[in-house]
Amino acid sequence: MIDLNKIGKRIQEERKYLRRISQEKMAEDLGMYQADISNMEKAKSGSGITDLVKLDMIADYFDMPLETLLFGRRQDQMEKYYGTKVGTMGCISTIALLMKGIDYDMLPPMWRANDWRNM
């Protein structure tokens, strides 16, 4: 299952420590409120932390693949691990199901991370 707290921490670390951007600046750039950014970083319910559109917008803002924001791996690391190119659209269904709380083991085998190369 996807750890929402880790996603919030990745957003905060990228914004605060790597980019040195305030919550206010990031919110302004993304057309959001500062409180939205703060609540997402804290993984608060209702903050949009489970909204793939918002997460994709944040990943684009940081110029990183959505997979990196969600799982903490860079695209090149994933490609090396899986032995093939792993595209964002190839795993969106899996990500959406995991974020809704579906158990990873309940996913069809071809949707599991170690089988994405077969998609």
β-strand percent reads: under 5%
Percentage of residues assigned to helices: 55-70%
Q: If you average the pLDDT, what whole number results?
A: 75
Total number of distinct structural domains: 1
What radius of gyration results from the CA coordinates?
15 Å
The coarse overall form would be globular
Nutshell version of this structure?
With 119 residues, the protein is mostly helical.
Task: Tell me what you see in this structure.
- It is a single chain.
- The protein is an all-alpha fold.
- The protein has seven helices and no strands.
- It has one domain: Orthogonal Bundle (434 Repressor (Amino-terminal Domain)), CATH 1.10.260.
- Helix 2 packs across helix 3.
- The protein is globular.
- The two termini are 20 Å apart.
- The model is unreliable at 114-119 (pLDDT under 50).
